[in-house]
Amino acid sequence: MKTDERDEPIYESDLGEDEEEATRVANPDELAYPMADATAIELLAPKAKRLLDNINSVLIGQMQAARLSIICLLSGGHALIEDVPGVGKTLLAKSLAMSVHAKFKRIQCTPDLLPSDVCGVSVFESKEGTFKFVPGPIFTNILLADEINRATPRTQSALLEAMEEHQVTTDGATRKLPELFFVIATENPIEYHGTFPLPEAQLDRFMISLSLGYPKPHQEVEILDKTLLDRAFEVDAVLTEAEVLEARQAVKLVFVDPSIKNYIVSIVNATRKHPAIVLGVSPRGSQLLMRAAQAAAFVDGRDFVKPDDVKLLAPYVLGHRVIPKVRESRVSHAELIERVLEEVPVPV
């Protein structure tokens, strides 16, 4: 369903159903994951690099944001992109989704979007006299939820429940989502009219929260040059669904030294005792930070996690999980985590 009206829900898919089915069954041998040993990291890490290069070919000046999104995808989390309009939030999300040859759908969140519009609804078949379930756009591999803060809390809850449980419940029946299920949500932090900001408990469902910021002048000139070219902001698929799932299994093989685990726990504990923070990070935050650090090492082609991986990712993984005593913008939360990092000794 697609309309030109801003306040009507829009669903988009990059592949037709026949192509999607063909992609899913074309190479059944590729689904034999995980690989037997740690050589999987050496074999699969170049594919992550290829994915990163593919996104950076269209997203100018956002190498860090692209890398964070790929880390989130390969570690099995979900990403929230918060920034002002026009800086490339949707372009980043769509470029990542289109770079993977899997099912991709997009939801334009609006105040009149219902949970059934996301999860699906049962329709009565008069000829057969039975109800038939029509799946919603959430039954996909990669889902872009554009402007998630424009959806009502009820619809947000339906989406966020699926993110956590990898299943949806409609009409009393529970239906599993695909094994590869990755949500990229975008949010405009400066628009408050007709929006429903995500509360902290729901923000906790996202592994990474990031913002893009404005490009540098020379990068903006490069963007203008690309604008004059046809299909300059479109990418081709470079990874299959099976390869992403194999990479996720390989990420789990990345070694995490006990000193690194203690470092992560020390950072999390410091947020719970910091005088500027009312509510610190939960154990879920420490789990996700370790998983993200493993994925970061994997993307760099390493089979072990370094303290620098943790330091780099902590503001993005933990920033939206703390509540400061002085309520500021969420962007400043990352700066608060950086202050905490300065107080925690780094393992050597």
CATH homologous superfamily heading of the largest domain: P-loop containing nucleotide triphosphate hydrolases
Strand content: 15-25%
Which spans have pLDDT < 50 for at least 5 consecutive residues? 1-37
Average of the residue pLDDT scores: 83
The total count of helices amounts to 13
Q: Based on the coordinates given, report the CATH architecture of the largest domain.
A: 3-Layer(aba) Sandwich
Rg (C-alpha, Å): 20 Å
CATH topology of the largest domain: Rossmann fold
How many structurally independent domains?
Answer: 2
Strand pairing plus helix content: what structural class?
Answer: alpha/beta
Strand order of the largest sheet: 1-4-7-10-2-11
Q: What fraction, in percent, of the residue positions are helical?
A: 40-55%
Name the CATH class of the largest domain. Alpha Beta
